[in-house]
Design a protein that fits this description.
Length: about 575
């Protein structure tokens, strides 16, 4: 800004020199004319240099701010609790991290400097004009209050309009993102036209709002630009008259006239910079909505690591609602699980099995009651140390765009290749991995090879087994596997479950029979608990669930009598 202001000083100086040169001409003083021309050139060269430096510095600063903000937004997003992501569309968040950031950079890199530079020009030129001739200056600057007034009105009308534009850009991004992510469903149901219509809808909405905002700009910007012309006309008339009367000399008049011409530019720029400022403020508001949002689920400042233990779990009168309006997903859960035991969670879909598992990893905090592991309430435990001790395999096994080996060692990047391969063997994944073009180094995920659902699940199970957790949660983790593969995986899983607490969620008899004890959930409540035999005997709900999920009639559990 200092460089910008110094450059502006040169700009303001030049008309003064032009005026003096004009006087030199009218006095036929050639020496003075040379001097003035030289001074004008020097001022121009100096301004060039100053502007160059200003641009380089401003570019650096604005890019650096964008760079820092981008990282801050990303880190902050990662620190927010899962519930935040449940409630916000991915595309919306992406748009904040890209489009909004750019608007801020443009303002910092150009807008702010243009604005202060133009404002300074107006003030400096005004001051010089008053020194030359206060009376003429007053006439020339008469339209200025109207301009300030117009600019303020412009600001007031255009800010909300701009904010809405930004919001609709985000909706458009979200819409596009969803179509691309869901492309398989779109194609499978031949709904490209429908998706396009929805996209078109978002495009139209953005277009309408942009037009609205442009109309405001179209009205105000030329108005702000036109007002100085009135000043110029007044100066020509009154000043010209004064020169003819001999009240002021031609040089003063020329300087004045050049100032008026010169002011038209900066005054227009003020309007433009105001627009940029509007956009940046709107973008900043949206960005800081995310940045100012404190993570709701964090480690306490005095949090201790999870105490040593074998993974004894205790739910005490736990209930969970996902939102203030949402019905309770879990109610009155009292559950005690001894260290090292294997529990199956069974229940109709929507009965709260996944919610129960999520509480254990403290992905959410219970609405009432408490969850503890090895005697420590999870809210008092350091989150990282807790999650290092828990491996959760969900039914949608997400893999990163990376090699299979790196996907498996995701939770423990220090694992050796032997450990990775052992985990893969336990999860029955080694055979298909070795048959891949680059084996463990094959890149999978979005930008790599696409694995089948069952293959992905086995990689995800390998990842969990390698993590060597105190508590292992398999949430429908074998749902995409065929009965034969699941059978094969059983011995590996049994080995992996050996000395840790395990929760298996699923309806297959083969899955359920991995557990020593079964907890039956219905509508967010525990309705029964017992061994496979006991539940089969006394619970019709259990028989129904297992009957409908028992896709593997070939399988008969070793030592249980089952009446299906
Ligand atoms: P299950 O795993 O047994 O099928 P869930 O635990 O996934 O059941 O869901 C229990 C209830 O909580 C359901 O009514 C579901 O709609 C709701 N629910 C689950 N996850 C969320 C979430 N992230 N946000 C809001 N509601 C949820
Ligand atoms: Mg579930």
């Amino acid at each position: 800004m200092v460089f910008a202001w110094m450059a502006m000083g040169m700009t303001v100086l030049i008309p003064l020199l032009v005026g003096m040169a004009t006087n030199a001409v009218s006095e036929s003083d050639m020496g003075q004319l040379w001097l003035m021309v030289g001074a004008i050139l020097a001022a121009a060269v100096l301004r060039l240099g100053l502007t160059l430096i200003r641009r380089i510095i401003a570019g650096r600063v604005s890019l650096a701010v964008e760079f820092d903000l981008r990282q801050e937004v990303y880190t902050h997003l990662m620190s927010l609790e899962l519930g935040f992501f449940d409630r916000n569309q991915t595309g919306q968040l992406m748009s904040r991290a890209t489009v909004d950031l750019q608007a801020i950079r443009f303002f910092l890199g150009y807008g702010l400097i243009f604005f202060s530079q133009s404002l300074l020009t107006v003030l400096l030129a005004g001051a010089v004009m008053f020194v030359i001739n206060p009376w003429l200056a007053a006439i020339a600057l008469a339209p200025a209050p109207f301009m300030v007034f117009t600019a303020l009105r412009f600001t007031r009308q255009s800010r909300p309009a701009m904010q809405e534009v930004q919001q609709r850009v985000a909706e458009l991004t979200a819409q596009a993102e969803e179509s691309v992510t869901g492309i398989r469903v779109v194609k499978a149901f031949a709904r490209e036209d429908h998706q396009f219509e929805r996209f078109q809808g978002a495009v139209d909405r953005l277009f309408d709002q942009s037009i609205r905002s442009t109309r405001i700009q179209a009205f105000f910007t030329p108005l702000i630009g036109a007002l100085p012309q009135i000043g110029t006309a007044l100066v020509l008339l009154v000043g010209g008259h004064a020169v003819l009367n001999g009240t002021i000399d031609l040089g003063e008049f020329t300087a004045f006239y050049v100032y008026m011409l010169m002011l038209a530019g900066p005054l227009r720029t003020v309007g433009m910079a105001l627009g940029m400022g509007q956009r940046a403020i709107a973008a900043g508001n949206r960005l800081f909505e995310v940045l100012d949002r404190e993570p709701e689920l964090t480690s306490k400042p005095d949090a201790k690591p999870l105490p040593a233990g074998g993974g004894a779990v205790r739910f005490e009168d736990v209930s969970l609602s996902y939102g203030p309006e949402a019905p309770a997903a879990l109610r009155g859960i009292d559950l005690e699980v001894a260290a090292g035991s294997r529990i199956a969670l069974v229940g109709p879909s929507g009965s709260g099995k996944t919610s129960l598992a999520a509480l254990l990893a403290r992905l959410y905090d219970p609405t009432t009651g408490s969850v503890s592991i090895d005697g420590a309430d999870l809210r008092d435990v350091d989150l990282t140390s807790l999650r290092r001790q828990i491996a959760y395999v969900s039914d949608d096994s997400f893999l990163f765009s990376d090699t299979i080996a790196n996907n498996i060692s995701y939770a423990r990047s220090d694992a050796t290749r032997e450990e990775v391969e052992r985990a893969a063997r336990l999860a029955q994944a080694s055979e298909f991995i070795e048959a891949l073009p680059d084996g463990y180094e094959t890149v999978v995920g979005e930008r790599g090879l696409t694995l089948s659902g069952g293959q992905r699940q086995r990689v995800a199970i390998s990842r969990a087994l390698l993590a060597d957790p105190r508590i292992l949660i398999l949430d429908d983790a074998t749902s995409s596997l065929d009965a034969t593969t699941e059978q094969q995986i059983r011995s590996g899983l049994a080995e992996a479950m050996a000395d840790r607490t395990t929760f298996v969620i699923g309806h297959r008899l083969s899955t359920v029979s991995l557990a020593e004890e079964i907890v039956l959930l219905d509508d967010g409540q525990i309705v029964d608990r017992g061994s496979l035999g006991e539940l089969t005997d006394r619970s019709s709900l259990f028989r129904e669930l297992i009957g409908s999920g028992g896709e593997d009639p070939l399988f008969v559990p070793e030592d249980e009598e089952v009446a299906v």
